[in-house]
Write a structure and sequence with these properties.
The structure holds 2 protein chains of 2 kinds.
Chain A lengths: L1 H11 L2 H23 L24 H9 L3 H20 L1 H6 L5 H34 L5 E2 L4 E2 L1 H33 L2 H19 L30 H26 L6
Antiparallel strand pairs in A: 1-2
Chain B lengths: L6 H4 L15 E12 L2 E12 L3 E5 L6 H8 L7 E6 L2 E3 L3 H7 E4 L11 H11 L5 H10 L15 H13 L5 E5 L7 H16 L3 E6 L2 H7 L2 E6 L2 E7 H4 L4 E7 L2 H9 L6 E5 L2 E6 L4 H10 L4 E6 L5 H9 L3 H15 L2
Parallel strand pairs in B: 3-8, 3-9, 6-7, 7-8
Antiparallel strand pairs in B: 1-2, 1-4, 4-5, 9-10, 11-13, 11-14, 12-13
Helix pairs in contact in B: 4-5, 5-6
Classes of the chains: A mainly alpha, B alpha/beta.
Chain lengths: 269, 341
């Protein structure tokens, strides 16, 4: 726990910490402006989601549209970078060896760094959620979400949106763990981030071919937008349960591999 | 064989244990320590013994494997064979326990650049247990960084970082301080300061293990030293005895390994070095006949005993570690390994 706190202290001193959070916070504002200027739903985009398509001028949908916009690329990108910086960030500057000459178990250090990475992504998601609500409320006001398909009160919609963000976190943690594994293998944060991101994208491309359909339930990249099932009455839990189990298994497995790799890694720099 | 360290004293806290003036307790030892990087044998069956109170110089040319040994002592890399023992704790097996008794750095000390010196020390002290503000002030004072304690380390000069490195090594009052070329890259003034600091630590009874490629430095600050070349110890002993003050003779024998054994068991304890086919034995003139007698008594054929020209330690060092073209290759290849992240 102490190591976790010390990692947070270190994170506070990094400029990229604040740039990352700030950058993500801009997105809901952009989304609000875009919604304000748009006249109707666009084919294939988040505005075409059946449960919001009929209510585009309502602030309550901004969190959902923002999350949908972030899910396929920016969230994995942020997660890759955060995961890649865990070990490699300190490895590159040389402070890793300074830390490891202290009586700290390597496993504990890795666990603390993983924990801080997850907390960081959680903080980023919460910031996006809060900024979305504020900018949505300012732009359109918050009203009940009523569409031809389904309708929710403001409280229901808020609660479901919040759950959706937590569901998104589950998938993102898998990406963090993947990037952390590459971080312990390559020792270079840039390489690790790119490798993780490329892998996520390649899997998504492969899954768009019918030949690989059988893989779909088993890879975490299938679940970036699993939370969309929340906005149904009644809620369709089956796919999301599978998604939570799958992403948790991936996160645990990848983090475990990272630990196994890092445990006896020679630290030469 | 090295005497095994006293386990009962090993577990008591550093502060309560007085340093015996004769320093017979073994605090740090390596046992057949070896490290291979691909084809390069960086460290090759290294055995050294550091006793409490020693200021131990680990002397060798660049690329002799000094830094690799220090990395293994600090548990940053895993030995291919053998192990390090720190007050009864094997490294890497009981790395964390050993690190409680150790402080030090490898290569150049690196800190968190955006943080102040004090913040860095606080962070590192927290990792060793609990940060104590007074102790942090104390070590900053010792290395003369009190004035800059609250400046960002990013703006520090090389010499200041080096001194901060020593400060963090002292932070948790460890039994042994391990410094990797602590004066490298410093200007003459900085070198003098750091050496004075190490001497002072030695006088206070702190055990110091430092690597250096500067013979003169080891002579200035160390009490004992080992000269290493290609990951092996060539000569080991008190610094005063490394310098051939008696007569140096070249001895040519039939069976060098056995002759070495015999010479090392002599009561006069001459310093012996290998030099090509010869053994260079340094001892008072009067002991030479006795030495030859004991070799003959051990049925070792003595082919020649000739006086070696008068030499200083510098010559011994250069001769022992001599860097002809063939020796350069591993140095360069080792560099390549270092550059790999």
């Amino acid at each position: 726990m102490k190591l976790l706190w010390l990692e947070i202290v270190k994170l506070r001193y990094q400029k990229r910490t604040w740039f990352g959070l700030g950058g993500l916070a801009v997105i809901p504002i952009v989304v609000t402006v875009a919604l304000y200027l748009s006249s109707g739903p666009a084919e294939g985009g988040p505005t075409a989601l059946p449960f919001i398509a009929g209510a585009l001028k309502n602030g309550i949908i901004v969190p959902i549209v923002s999350l949908f916009g972030l899910a396929p690329f920016l969230l994995p990108l942020a997660a890759s970078m955060v995961g890649a910086f865990t070990i490699a960030g300190e490895w590159e500057t040389g402070t890793l060896k300074t830390v490891l000459t202290r009586p700290v178990r390597r496993g504990s250090l890795l666990a603390a760094k993983w924990g801080v990475a997850v907390l960081y992504v959680l903080a980023a998601l919460l910031i996006v959620f809060v900024v979305s609500l504020i900018s949505g409320a300012v732009g359109f006001g918050l009203r009940d979400l009523v569409t031809p398909v389904v309708s929710f009160t403001v409280a229901e919609a808020l609660w479901l949106s919040f759950l959706a963000y937590l569901m998104a976190l589950a998938v993102v943690v898998s990406v963090v763990s993947l990037a952390m594994l590459f971080s312990t293998i390559t020792g270079s944060s840039l390489t690790a981030a790119v490798m993780a991101l490329v892998l996520v994208i390649v899997i998504q491309i492969l899954l768009s071919f019918s030949y690989f359909d059988f893989l779909e339930p088993y890879v975490f990249t299938s679940y970036f937008t699993m939370w969309a099932d929340l906005f149904q009455k009644p809620i369709e839990w089956e796919q999301m349960t599978r998604g939570l189990v799958c992403t948790t298994a991936w996160s645990a497995g990848l983090a475990g591999l990272a630990w196994w790799r890092f445990r006896r890694r020679d630290i030469l720099l | 064989m090295t005497p095994s360290p006293d386990i009962t004293t090993a577990e008591s806290p550093a502060a309560t244990r007085p340093a015996p003036p004769d320093g017979h307790e073994v605090v740090l030892s390596t046992h057949g320590l070896s490290k291979r990087f691909g084809e390069i044998q960086a460290v090759d069956g290294l055995d050294i013994v550091v006793r409490r109170g020693d200021v131990y110089g680990f002397l060798g040319p660049n690329g002799a494997g000094k830094t690799t040994v220090i990395r293994m002592i600090l548990g940053l890399i895993w030995p291919t064979e053998g192990h390090v023992e720190v007050l009864g704790n094997r490294v890497p097996g009981r790395r964390e326990a050993a690190l409680r008794h150790l402080g030090g750095f490898v290569d150049d000390p690196v800190f968190y650049a955006p943080m102040s010196a004090r913040r860095n020390l606080w962070l590192l002290a927290e990792m060793s247990g609990h940060a104590d503000g007074d102790r942090i002030d104390e070590v900053l004072e010792m290395v003369g960084l009190t004035d800059r304690a609250d400046s960002k380390v990013g703006g520090f000069s090389h010499g200041m970082k080096q001194r901060l490195g020593i400060a963090q090594a002292l932070l948790h009052c460890p039994d042994i301080i391990v410094l990797d070329e602590p004066t490298s890259g410093l200007d003459p003034g900085g070198m003098k300061e750091v050496r004075e600091l190490i001497r002072q630590l030695g006088r206070q009874g702190t055990t110091v293990f430092l690597s250096s490629h500067l013979l003169h430095e080891v002579e200035l600050v160390c009490t004992r030293a080992a000269i290493v070349k290609r990951g092996r110890v060539i000569v080991e002993g008190p610094v005063g005895e490394l310098r051939p003050d008696g007569m140096a003779v070249k001895v040519l024998v039939d069976d060098r390994p056995r002759a070495l054994e015999v010479l090392r068991s002599l009561s006069t304890a001459p310093s012996v070095a290998e030099d090509g086919d010869h053994l260079i034995v340094t001892m008072p003139d009067d002991d030479v006949p006795e030495m030859v007698k004991s070799l003959v008594a051990a049925e070792i054929g003595v082919r020649a005993v000739v006086p070696a020209p008068e030499r200083g330690l510098e010559d011994v060092f250069l001769e022992l570690t001599g860097t002809d073209g063939a020796e350069e290759a591993p140095v360069r290849r080792k560099r390549r390994w270092k550059l790999r992240p």
